[in-house]
Design a protein that fits this description.
The complex is a heterodimer of chains A (164) and B (337).
Chain A (H helix, E strand, L loop, with lengths): L8 H20 L22 E3 L14 H5 L5 E7 L11 E9 L8 H5 L5 E3 L14 E2 L1 H4 L5 H12 L1
Antiparallel strand pairs in A: 1-4, 2-3, 3-5
Chain B lengths: L1 H5 L1 H37 L15 H10 L11 H18 L5 E4 L2 E3 L7 H22 L3 H32 L4 H5 L2 E4 L2 E4 L7 H14 L11 H4 L9 H26 L10 H22 L5 H31 L1
Antiparallel strand pairs in B: 1-2, 3-4
The chains are: A alpha+beta (164), B mainly alpha (337).
Chain lengths: 164, 337
């Protein structure tokens, strides 16, 4: 109804019919609901979800135990305890490696500062976001949980060494 | 069948079986009306509605029913326990009783009914008035301000709209000359070459419009759901009800919805007559269309303010209904002498 127009029965009925028409057109428009567990909305490439510790292609861990990620973390949810590499037991290419690497996922705010701080791109945030679990202890992500699996060729080489 | 029906004991057997069958049909229909409403409202809001339990969510009501049945039957402190329990029982009993006089057209000359009362519509009005007691007593017995407010609103609302509802149908009775629902459906006209039943809305269009609005108010459906009014009164008379007592109120609301839909089909759209469509399908189709209309209204219009509701009831619908009766009377006298 235009501004200042006198209310009339015809105008009121037209307004009601207009409302009914709106809802009826909505009725036949496609739904916007995603059937969540089956269909998932697409993540952006820059989405910050669960963390991963990466390896080099030769199977060595990237992390050199410098603790810059722990220092950068605004909530202090990262614990790194470094240990020395030796020629017999070499885990990362640097002098040291992370003996313990734990992230408390209940505290983590997924800001991505750890990823920015890392000089060797060892810690990264992936696209995974379904992280619910049943106990507080399970939210302490240990190094075993965070570390990427070995590249398949390195795994094969190690397997053949072990069988010899 | 006739012999069994006329036998004094056989008569009761037939009636009991008929009642049991009708109870089953009405309860099932109510369950699927709830499902239909949730899905239709969902589509209006561009979401799917319940679709997880069973195919297309058809078993949702079974899941809800089980959940509600196992809930604690809570009664608030310092309430009148007897009234608190009786109130929802009145609602559901009144709702079911209306179906005793509603004929269901199965085939051209086969109808299903429990009682073929010659004042059928009057009985339905009487029972729908009982609904006021259910809501007022429930609101009073809850010992809760919101419940009491809901109950009081309902008393005023239902009484005001009952007048318009009753008067909206008077022209129909004047034209047909009977209150028996079967007679109204079977009303035939002889217009030139056409000989047969007609939808009475052609003769009483204004009565139909008034009936439609008053019926929404009588069943406490949006946009006239002031006794419930979730946003202002939490749940009105329903606030303190949970578990099976809550189910009874809800059941009553949906049965009443089907009842007024069936009445609209019977009184204004020739019941089970629809061109060459089989009668039972035609009757069902008309009821479902009216149910959709109610859901559509709920999905579209916001709730009226209380003074608007009263103004519409007393200053618009009631005078219009009275004028409709008078004008119909004048036309009837003028044409038929």
């Amino acid at each position: 109804m235009p501004e200042g127009a006198r209310p009339s029965v015809a105008g009121d009925v037209a307004a009601l019919v207009g409302g009914l028409k709106t809802t009826l057109t909505e009725f036949f428009r496609p739904q916007v609901t995603l059937a969540y567990p089956e269909d998932k909305s697409p993540r952006s490439e820059r989405y910050r979800g669960r963390h991963y510790l990466r390896r080099y292609d030769n199977g060595l861990e990237r992390c050199i135990g410098c603790e810059l990620c722990a220092a950068a973390c605004p909530v202090g949810c990262i614990l790194v305890i470094a240990a020395e590499n030796s020629d017999e037991k070499r885990i990362s290419p640097g002098e040291r490696y992370a003996k313990t690497y734990e992230i408390n996922m209940l505290r983590c705010i997924f800001c991505g500062y750890c990823e920015d701080a890392c000089p060797v791109q060892a810690i990264v945030l992936g696209p995974e976001y379904e992280l619910s679990d049943t106990s507080r202890e399970k939210f302490i992500y240990t190094k075993e949980k965070l570390l990427e699996p070995l590249p398949p060729d390195v795994q094969a080489r190690l397997d053949s060494k072990g069988s010899k | 069948m006739n012999q069994l029906y006329n036998d004094p004991i056989g008569h009761w057997v037939v009636v009991t079986v008929a009642i049991a069958l009708l109870l089953f049909v009405v309860l099932t229909a109510t369950a699927y009306t709830v499902w239909f409403e949730r899905v239709a409202l969902g589509h209006i809001q561009r979401r799917p509605g319940p679709n997880r339990v069973g195919p297309w969510g058809l078993l949702q009501l079974a899941a809800d029913g089980v959940k509600l049945a196992f809930k604690e039957s809570f009664v608030p402190a310092e309430t009148d326990k007897l009234l608190f329990v009786i109130a929802p029982t009145i609602a559901v009993a009144a709702a079911f009783l209306s179906w005793a006089v509603i004929p269901i057209g199965l085939w051209y000359n086969v109808q299903y009914w429990i009682a073929d009362v010659n004042v059928g519509v009057l009985l339905i009005f009487a029972l729908s008035s009982l609904n006021v007691y259910a809501i007022v007593i429930g609101g009073y017995a809850s010992n809760n301000k919101y419940s009491l407010l809901g109950g009081l609103r309902s008393a005023a609302q239902l009484i005001s709209y009952e007048l318009a509802l009753g008067l909206s149908l008077v022209p129909t009775f004047m034209i047909v000359g009977s209150l028996r629902l079967r007679d109204i459906v079977d009303y035939t006209v002889h217009w030139g070459w056409y000989n047969g039943p007609i939808p009475l809305i052609l003769l009483t269009p204004i009565g139909f419009v008034i009936y439609l609005m008053a019926a929404v108010a009588e069943t406490n459906r949006a946009p006239f759901d002031l006794p419930e009014a979730e946003q202002e009164l939490i749940g009105g008379f329903l606030t303190e009800y949970s578990g099976l007592k809550f189910v009874m109120y809800y059941l009553a609301e949906y049965i009443n919805m089907i009842t007024v839909s069936a009445l609209a089909a019977l009184l204004f759209f020739a019941g089970w007559y629809l061109w060459i469509v089989p009668p039972i399908l035609a009757f069902l189709l008309k009821i479902v269309l009216f149910l959709f209309l109610y859901i559509w209204l709920r999905g579209t219009f916001p709730r009226l303010r209380y003074d608007m509701l009263m103004r519409l009831g007393w200053k618009v619908l009631l005078p219009l209904a009275i004028a409709n009766v008078i004008v119909t009377g004048i036309i009837l006298v003028a044409t038929q002498g």
